[in-house]
Amino acid sequence: MLAQFQDYAARTANRTFARYANGAPFARVRKNLPPLDAPGFIGFPLQVGTHRNGKPVLFTELQHIKLQAELCEALRPLYRQWFAAHSQPAQMPEVLATIESGPMLRIASPVEPSPLAWDRRAISADSIPVGLAHGFGGAQSVAWNRTIDHHVIVAGATGSGKSVLMRLMLLSLALATDPGQMELVLIDPKNRGLEELARLPHVRQPMAWNPSDMAAMLAAVDVELSARIAKNSPASPVIILAIDEVADLLEGNAVLQSLYARINKMGREQGIHTIAGTQKPMLTELGQGPTQATFQAVGRMQRSRDTRIATGLDVPADALPYPGLFYIASNGRAPQVVQVPFVSEDDARRTVGQLARQHGEVSPSVLRPGVAPVTVEDRRVADGWKRAAADAVKLWQGFGDGWKEQSERQQMIYLGINPSGGSYYSGQKRLDMVREIGLD
Question: Is there a contact between 34 and 330 (Cβ–Cβ < 8 Å)?
Answer without folding.
Answer: no
